[in-house]
Amino acid sequence: MSMLGILHLVGSPSSDFYCNLSRLYAQDCLEAMTGGWGYNFSIAYITPDGLWRFPHSLTREDIALSQPISVVDAIKFITEQNIDLVLPQMFCIPGMTYYRALFDLLKIPYMGNKAEVMAIASHKAKAKAIVAAAGVKVPDGELLRRGDVPTIIPPVVIKPVSSDNSLGVALVKEVSEYDGALSQAFEYADEVIVEKFIELGREVRCGILVQYGELVGLPLEEYLVHPDEKPIRNHADKLQQTHDGNLHLTAKDNIKAWIVDPKDPITHKVQEVAKQCHQALGCRHYSLFDFRIDPQGQPWFLEAGLYCSFSPQSVISCMAKAKGISLNELFSTVTKEALQIHG
Q1: What is the pLDDT of the chain when averaged over all its residues?
Q2: What's residue 163's pLDDT?
Q3: Residue 109, Cβ neighbours under 10 Å: how many?
Q4: DSSP string, 277-294
Q5: Transmembrane stretches, by residue range (predicted)?
Q6: What pLDDT does residue 220 have?
Q7: Whole-angstrom Cα distance, residue 244 to residue 24?
Q8: 10 Å Cβ neighbour count for 289?
Q9: DSSP-derived 3-state class of residue 94
Q10: In 3-state terms, what secondary structure has residue 73?
């Protein structure tokens, strides 16, 4: 049997930030898979100018040496290769939607959720509305556009409707703080969510893995929060930029984030709610959800983050490892689901 040809889809047409974020995770993934694991890996790298490159690796040197080509030429090149499956590694809105839809048109399967599901999940208000209709508890909130006046009495959390990594997120405790927080949030999106602040509690993430068509709840990851000192997580808790312009992850140090003991009573409760979210949103292969746990132990849906880079530092990879599922086994499981190999 010939090796499966897997294309890593990396980069961003939107910004240098998302381009570097994508490269960070994808490079970590490829380094973890040194030796190929029995797959034939290749790379497609999209830059903010919209051009495509097909470098041998994701080092800056190899990227610089690769020839930039148009999307038309890139499609022609891709269809001439033996590509069985695509691994999307892009985190910007076009990367999660337009580029996945492109491979639907090319009839080349890809790992992870479909473009239309990603579009819904990336719009926090739409995702909240869908899971709420399925019976999942969500914080009361409202969707604002520029010029709208918020009606919810603080404390509230303000967040851009489509930003990631807590960009533009703020906790407003007084009405006088509204203008500044809204102004900041509107720098990242044309729509902003204002939602009632859920008292701590705890804050956790739950991953769902599809194995042989069955939904499997992964161990929870909990984040460092404190009712007074750190009531919400911010951008600096997740990513930092070094002096040379490279991004690095800050939430993987077992201090700001850790795996919850599976015997913790909250685990099963959150896993069941996460499965409801997975089904309500129409997810496939895997999913990932953030929850706020109030002082009474009630999970509240915050948002969906429906991607996995298969980097050892990727949240789903860490959760799977805690369950005894190696990165190789996780990758193989999702590959089989994507190719519908259930035998």
Answers
A1: 91
A2: 77
A3: 15
A4: HHHHHT--SEEEEEEEE-
A5: none
A6: 97
A7: 14
A8: 29
A9: helix
A10: helix
Q: Whose CA is closest to 96, among 112, 109, 115?
A: 115
φ, ψ of residue 286 to 5 degrees: the values are: -165, 165
Torsion angle defined by CA atoms of residues 249, 251, 254 and 257, in that order, rounded to the nearest 10 degrees: -160
pLDDT, position 215: 98
Query: Smallest Cα–Cα separation from 91: which of 307, 235, 294, 284?
Result: 307
Give pLDDT, residue 1. Answer: 52
Q: What is the model's pLDDT at position 233? A: 63
Q: Alpha-carbon distance 206 to 220, whole Å?
A: 5
Q: What pLDDT score was predicted for residue 225? A: 82
pLDDT in tens, 116-154: 999 999 999 999 999 999 999 999 999 999 999 999 999
Q: Which residues does the chain have with pLDDT short of 50?
A: 235, 239-248, 250-251
150 close to 144: Cβ distance less than 8 angstroms: yes
Residue 7 pairs in a beta bridge with: 42, 86
pLDDT score recorded for residue 243: 38
Residues sharing a CB contact under 8 Å with residue 88, sequence separation 6 or more, in sequence order: 9, 95, 96, 99, 100, 110, 111, 112, 307
Q: Where are the alpha helices (DSSP H) in the chain?
A: 16-32, 60-65, 71-79, 93-96, 98-105, 115-121, 124-133, 178-185, 265-281, 315-322, 327-338
Distance spanning both ends of the chain, measured CA to CA: 16
Rounded to 5°, the CA angle 190-191-194 comes to 145
